[in-house]
Amino acid sequence: MDDDTIEYFFDNIESFYAELDDVLNRPYTTEEDAKRVTTQYIRFLVRYQQEFLKTSVEFAQVAYKLIDSKLCLDFSTVVLAHILNHHALVSQDKAELLVSYSLLLYAGKDEPRWMDFILLESIHKKRNRLFCKIMTEVRLGFYNCYKILSASFALCFEMCKLAKLEKEDLVLLDTPTVNHFLDLVEETRGDADESFNYDVIRLILVLNEQYMMSGMSDNLVLDVLSQRFGTSDTFSANLMFMLNRSNDTCVQMLILKLLYGIFTRASLYEYFYTNDLYVLVDITLRELCDLGDTKESQTLRDAYLRVLEPLLENTQLRSRPYKKQETYKTLQSLLNPGMQRKVNSTTKRLVKRILENWWEKLTGLQVNWCYDNGSSPNLSHTSTLSSCSSGPTTPADDLGVDEISAVMTRKEVNKKIQQDTKNPNIVVV
């Protein structure tokens, strides 16, 4: 009998979860059986979405149920391909799209190789079908709630992190669409749940990266920002907040690439308020001092240095310098780190260029290129360096922006459940 013809009555969420387990435990032997059970599971979730899928925790619960099931263990790629090809790519039902997008997103975040599979399965004749569908639906105003926008934007972000889009895919974006993204950031600035706001910003960041990789002469993200002076204050402020708190190297790099684009485009030299630039200087000084010697840290440090030069030379800081001496001492410390530590050749080149173009040419001061006995400069009086900064930095144990996401990891779900004393019936995954 079709599940849609059966009337279910659930006393609580626990009995709902029990029925979900029954659906996943239905007999299967072939790929067609696996597809059938997957569809039944999705339809069941869609049917009771309004009652039992109201929060991120509840969506995470049902997603991890599917991911952890024997069905998914035996037919993982079949299940994912079926969700993509027979639900996400063809459905026009918003409730079904929210469920299918969420299942794909949680699967990909839980196991990176599954996101790789979803991406490859989505690409046909070099076009990313899922990205194209989502962008088309956004342009048509198809989505009418933040939940489905959040899931769709997060999916696009994860796919765009992994692979370069074709120019034909990027053409789907236009000025009104990018303006719409930025408007969403402003519209949701006061929301208690900040996750959607940051999902939109992450999408904008990765789209900027896609334009940079495309070789196209136009970058719609920068073009639109050039027209939005004074109307994207939340976006600019939250960029600084994210850079200050994020522990995700990918997100940090994406922010720095956007900042580099802004500070090297004449029409955007003064896009940020001066106070935001002061915050960025504080963050940069802290990171230049605190980043370690791993390859990832060196790459991130060099990215900060690439942004620092146009920040000092092209923005309001050119005429209104901030922490000039601290910046100089920090740069000198990178050339002379002491303790027999080697200086990365790229780092050395970037630092020397900043000192020559900013310190010598712009400020008119002389660089002391060497120190007695090869020792590093004394930074003990530089109060704004490292994690001791009195500036806008945050304690390491504060809530990081990476935790402000609609997609919850297993650890986050369990933590949330343990804190939720009002609903003891939620099952821990």
UniProtKB/TrEMBL annotation:
GO cellular component, one term: actin cortical patch
GO molecular function terms listed in the Swiss-Prot or TrEMBL record: Arp2/3 complex binding
Domain of life of the organism encoding this protein: Eukaryota
Domain SPIN90/Ldb17 leucine-rich as annotated: residue spans: 193-326
Biological process per Gene Ontology, one example term: actin cortical patch assembly
A Pfam cross-reference name: SPIN90_LRD
Identification of the protein by name: SPIN90/Ldb17 leucine-rich domain-containing protein
